[in-house]
């Protein structure tokens, strides 16, 4: 998989979290994941179809996820679990959409499914492809999170 594929995901992540949660995020160097264990305890996944088939996922630790939701909703959090699930799904959907626009510039026309959110320590990510995932670690004032994607 070309390293250029990471650029639209990095750009989309910075844009969406800046616009929705007033966060300045910094991307670390992308790497190839060797396992399917999530990097956080809250993960949102989107299946990708079109010119390529694959999976897009973002995993947050609990404190980072709650911080981002509070930034988005203020102190209007009523049900932490439900609000975190909804917000992480929506953030992942927005990042996926923006990244897919950037991937068009690289010659890929892709569609994304509705996000699924998984919560719990040490959960696994089920990729829709046999390819290894590329992981991009991010940090911000909220904490750390990891974006992963893979395509056949």
TrEMBL record:
Residues of the Chemotaxis phosphatase CheX-like domain: 42-139
Keywords: Chemotaxis
Coiled coil location: none
Membrane-spanning ranges: none
The keyword Ribonucleoprotein appears for this protein: no
One GO process term, biological-process aspect: chemotaxis
SUPFAM superfamilies: CheC-like (SSF103039)
Annotated InterPro entries: CheC-like_sf, CheX-like, CheX-like_dom
Annotated protein name in UniProt: Chemotaxis protein CheX
């Amino acid at each position: 998989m070309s390293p250029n594929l990471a650029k639209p995901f990095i750009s989309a992540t910075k844009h969406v979290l800046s616009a929705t949660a007033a966060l300045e995020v910094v991307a670390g160097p992308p790497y190839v994941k060797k396992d399917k264990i999530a990097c956080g305890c809250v993960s949102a996944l989107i299946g990708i179809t079109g010119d390529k088939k694959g999976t897009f996922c973002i995993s947050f630790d609990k404190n980072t996820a709650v911080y981002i939701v509070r930034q988005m909703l203020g102190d209007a959090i009523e049900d932490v679990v439900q609000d975190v699930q909804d917000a992480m799904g929506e953030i992942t959907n927005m990042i996926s959409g923006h990244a897919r626009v950037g991937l068009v510039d690289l010659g890929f026309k892709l569609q994304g499914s509705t996000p699924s959110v998984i919560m719990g320590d040490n959960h696994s990510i089920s990729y829709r492809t046999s390819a290894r995932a590329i992981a991009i670690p991010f940090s911000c004032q909220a904490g750390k999170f990891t974006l992963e994607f893979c395509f056949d």
